[in-house]
Every structure is written in C-alpha cells, then in structure tokens.
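Thread: quick sanity check before group meeting

JM: Hey all, I'm pulling together slides for Thursday and realized we never actually wrote out the predicted structure for the chain we discussed last week. Dropping the sequence here so it's in one place. If anyone has concerns about the input, flag it before I start.
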Amino acid sequence: MKIKEYTAADKAACLAIFDSNMPQYFMPEERQQFEDWLDKEGREVYYVLIDNDEIVACGGIYEDTELKLVGQAWGMVLNSLHKKGYGKALTLHRIKEMDERFSHLEQHLGTSQHTAPFYEKMGYTTIEVIKDGFGIGLDYYKMKRLVKKD
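JM (edit): ok, ran it. Output follows.
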C-alpha cells in the first residue's frame, strides 16, 4: 500500500471511486463538483492510495485563508473495499500533512451521518449538524479536530 500525490492520469479512477459511493455517501449532483475540484488550478494537494497497483482510495486537504482553517476534502474509498483500513490510512496521512504544514490552523471537515463516527475515532468532534445538508437523506456534519499545541 502506498500513498502518492494525485495526477490527471488518476482522474478516471477517482471518479469511479466516487461513483461506487453514490447515493449512500455522495449525492449524484455532487459528482460534477468533485470533477471540477479535481481539475481546479491551484487546488491544494490531493492524494491517491494504491494497493496491488490499483487506486482504491483518494482524498485531499485544503486551506481556507479567509476562515483561517484547513480541512480534509473529498475523502473516499472504493465502496467494495470499505472497512479494510484504507480510509484510516489515508485519513491519518492527511492529518499528518495538516499537522506539519498547517499547524497554526484549526482542522475542519464536512461529512455525513454515515462517516461521522469514523472521523470521531480519528479525533474529530461534531460541531454542527444540518439535516439534509447534502441532499434529502444525507445530513451535513461539520466537524473539528482539536489539535494539541506545544
């Protein structure tokens, strides 16, 4: 298993991962937003996790300079491979990157009721829930990770 930075050659695999997670984890109308984000100039770093020469997970980080925070973006694992440790490995990698590169900023993420418990295990706390925030039946959980300062 290895994690590398995303390249345009990885786009089809990342879109296939997204598609495998609809509609439980992502709404169909979010697909174009995800594709646009992958193509965005100046986007913060995005990663793919490879196992057995196959991209099985992807996820990135972003910095919001206006709100003075950093967050995890578009994290997902191929649906047939959930609960195999890929999501945990990729999340811990992104947390480490945020801790190293953005230690002065609060860490946030937005997720749904389906993955909020996973992120709680990774040190995140829910600070707000918006019912149907992503779409009907998919609530928006705004979460924050408390970072210990030296």
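AS: nice. The mean pLDDT is 93. Residues 26 and 81 are 16 Å apart (CA to CA).
JM: adding both to the slides.
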